[in-house]
User: Fold this.
Amino acid sequence: MDSNNELIQKINEKYISMGLEPEAFYKGLLYSKPINYWDYIEVESLLSLQKPRTDYPDEMVFIMYHQVTELLLNMMTHEMHQVCNNENLTADYFIEKLGRMNRYIQMLANSFDVMRLGMDPNQYNEFRFSLTPASGFQCASFRFAEIYSTDIENLLDTRVKGNLPANYDTAFLFENIYWQAAGKDHKTEKKSYLLNLFEEKYLDKFIAMANEYKTKNIWQKYVAMPEKDKNNPALIQALKDLDIEFNIKWPIVHLRAAEQYLDNGSKVIKATGGSDWKKYLHPMYQKRVFFPGLWSKEELDNWAKDYD
Assistant:
């Protein structure tokens, strides 16, 4: 009984300190139903979110896998947000959070055989036409993870990186970010319908987020740490692992899955978004690197070659 009285006292103190009446919460406990798994996880709602556009059974695999991808990316950005907004960041906390991020992206990379081997090619190459012009390119969660991770300058098209003007703003950077290559004709500067829709939906949010995290993205949080922490081998390795998992392994398994369905040896089929996917997906062409200061010139020059 003493432990119960002590617990009740703590509950009273909690709500009184918030300016609330504890009695109302006790009444809520008296009348409320116990929680169960299916309501807490919203299982029925979750399983109602698959809305195929064709009658091909494997379209359900395609939809559910991409929904799982979105959830895992949001788990990753949940951890990134905590690191970027931690004003008392320690090396141990940083390493722990990076470990979580790396496990999430490893799950994505390791699970891609669900896409590569888990759909009938004939079904895919029929139902995919009902998705035009939608594309995985339009995954905003992936872009949020990039913005949390590094300076936008590190995400620029390789043709622009070494030729920045003396003065530029964030909008200029997004006009020249690497993923513009999937939706812009660089000769005419004309943007595809796919890219225009994506920017109409998300560009203002991307720019605002990039401005907010310019001085507190993961790379900047590392740079601002004391030298002792910056030289921590485990922290350096965890950051390099994130670069490898996110910017090399993940694009390569995505590329291999695309090859399974869009390259029959004699003919390369265009992606639903119309991009040159073989070049766009390969990290040797994109050369995205979140933490360039942690890699040698030789490693950067040979980026992703050992993983091809």
User: Anything to note?
Assistant: The beta strands are 184-185, 190-191. The CA atoms of residues 78 and 142 lie 12 Å apart.
